[in-house]
Amino acid sequence: MFQSNEFSSKPGDRYAQQLRRGFRRLRFEPEIESEYRRKLIETERLPAAICAGAGALVWFAFTLLDLHRLTILGLWGHFDPMVWLWVGARWSVLALLVAGAIVIRRGRGDYGWLSWTMYSAMGLAIAVTTMIVHGKGAFAAENAQIVVVMAAFLPLGLTFRRALAAALLVALVSAFMLLFLDTRHGFGHSLQIVAMLLMAVPVSAMGGYLREHSQRRQFLLTAILDRQANTDPLTGLANRRSLFTHAERIVHLATKQGVAVALAIIDVDHFKRFNDSYGHGAGDLALQRIAHALSADLRHPLDIAARLGGEEFCILLYGATPDDAHARFDGVLARIRRLAIPHIRSPGGFLTLSIGAATLARGERFNTLVSRADAALYRAKHEGRDRLCWA
């Protein structure tokens, strides 16, 4: 829904203001932050699913390696609790990764916590199984945890803070196990691995921070450009291009659901005379005040007010019955009259509007609806202006 809540506002101002303020802590104002999170979840859905699938394949390879290790160690049929924990952790995480990849790819909601859970479970399972394998006298690459820590900052649908929290959790738990539970290697050897493990956190976090900072900047720039492309720079209403794009969707939806749609084409009476008398600055201010009045009664999320060009506007109402639309369009005329914008070259002494309206007929295209409303507008002009006429 396009509205102009302040006459001095320009499209994209809140994004531009956020860009000027900066975001060193990787946080926007709440409304923009919510938009960014939704965009992040959507754009990283496929990469996150690919990462989960790749993780499942690698994990499956280690699961097959476990079968070989168990055979060599002669543990088949002699499972003690630690071996059960080893095998159970491996297969449980494998199932989680496979299911997670499917849910992320096919789902539509926020999968951020699922990604966080899968990553953390994988990292913690590696830490646990490494200690168990060492305890059984088999080889296990504890250095693999360094790779896991760095993987937290892959495109998993996680913000930097969530990724950092997951990386720290895995790194600290792994460090604790290496230093206090690893009985196979000496303390010095374990300390070297822990040092590299903890060093991997800030190094990879730096890359994650810079990546998200760049993503956030690109998000703001794209939003600013999108607003500029789809809104009128003077009034903040939708422009003609945006209106027709939106209207095609509305007409399709209304036809499918059997919902009424009403369109009003609005023209400011004797506006050229107004500009000649008061100047273009006053004309611009008058258009902004009119735009604010037009957008004040938009109730449904699919309602839209737009500036078609010059002094011509339109309102498209979704789900408004003919009686409701008539009352609301009459209300627009009344609001402009209450503004009492002086116009010495208008018959009534004040700025007024002429409105031509039409309701969408079954199977009608939007262009045809516009033509009928335009014809009604011409009739309103011909009958004396400052009135509403229906097609």
Structural summary, described in words:
With 391 residues, the chain is of the alpha+beta class. It folds into two domains: 14-228, no CATH class; 240-390, Reverse transcriptase/Diguanylate cyclase domain (Alpha-Beta Plaits), CATH 3.30.70.270. The protein has helices spanning 13-21, 30-43, 45-72, 81-106, 112-135, 144-151, 160-180, 187-230, 240-257, 271-278, 280-295, 322-339, 366-382; strands at 261-268, 304-309, 312-318, 353-359, 388-390. The chain has a five-stranded mixed sheet, with helices on both faces. α5 (112-135) runs parallel beside α7 (160-180) and α10 crosses α11. It starts with 12 loop residues before the first helix and ends with a strand.
Short descriptors:
391 residues, Alpha-Beta Plaits, five-stranded mixed beta sheet, 13 helices, 64% helix, 8% strand, disordered N terminus
Order of helices and strands: HHHHHHHHHEHHEEHEHE
For the terminal residues, how far apart are their CA atoms? Answer: 25 Å
Biggest β-sheet strands, sense, barrel: 5 strands, mixed
Report the structural category: alpha+beta
Strand content: 5-15%
List the uncertain runs: 1-9
Organism: Sphingomonas koreensis
Keywords: Membrane, Transmembrane, Transmembrane helix
InterPro entries: Diguanylate_Cyclase, GGDEF_dom, Nucleotide_cyclase, Rev_trsase/Diguanyl_cyclase
Pfam families: GGDEF
